[in-house]
Amino acid sequence: MNDQPQQPRVPDPANEFASDSSSIDPRDFRNALGTFATGVTIITAAAPDGKPYGLTCNSFASVSLNPPLVLWSLVVYSSSLTIFQNASHFTVNVLGASQQALASKFAKSSDDKFTGVDWTPGLGGAPVLAEGVANFQCRSVNRYYGGDHVIFLGAVEAYTYNATEPLLFARGAFGRFLADDERKKSP
């Protein structure tokens, strides 16, 4: 843990995205980013043959209300990258607090991630998972390259949501959200 502000030296623009040119320690930077609690999602898409693909992701964010746009990012060396780059649609499935095991299942490489998972095909065949907090069915609009990730921009074409408690992730662990009124009830 480091309480001192991290101020990188001014990089040479020609080498700014080179992995060896930053003075910031990647592990310490990851620890600092981990202090920001996020929701947990499973992003899904379908291959051209209809096979479902999905992965756990916490880099989901809203971009715009009008038009309704969202984004998420995927590391460039992901085995699923080509599927998501070529998919016409993707679904962002926001997980509930009771779906930690599902988040862990989709975080690992496996050919049978959808075995035993309740889902229906959504727009473009992208799986919509059952029992989540929300889902956003998106048309792929654009991709941007940022460092070691590809940022996917999606136009939301359909969505659902409910009042189920969301699953959170911070400091490398899953957690829960307690509203102020819930904390007051706790002993």
UniProtKB/TrEMBL annotation:
The keyword Magnesium does not apply. It comes from the Bacteria. Keywords: Oxidoreductase. SMART domains: Flavin_Reduct. Residues 33-176 form the Flavin reductase like domain. Pfam families: Flavin_Reduct. Residues 1-24 are annotated as: Disordered. The keyword Signal does not apply. GO terms for molecular function: FMN binding; riboflavin reductase (NADPH) activity. Belongs to the non-flavoprotein flavin reductase family. This is Flavin reductase. The lineage of its organism: Bacteria, Pseudomonadati, Pseudomonadota, Alphaproteobacteria, Hyphomicrobiales.
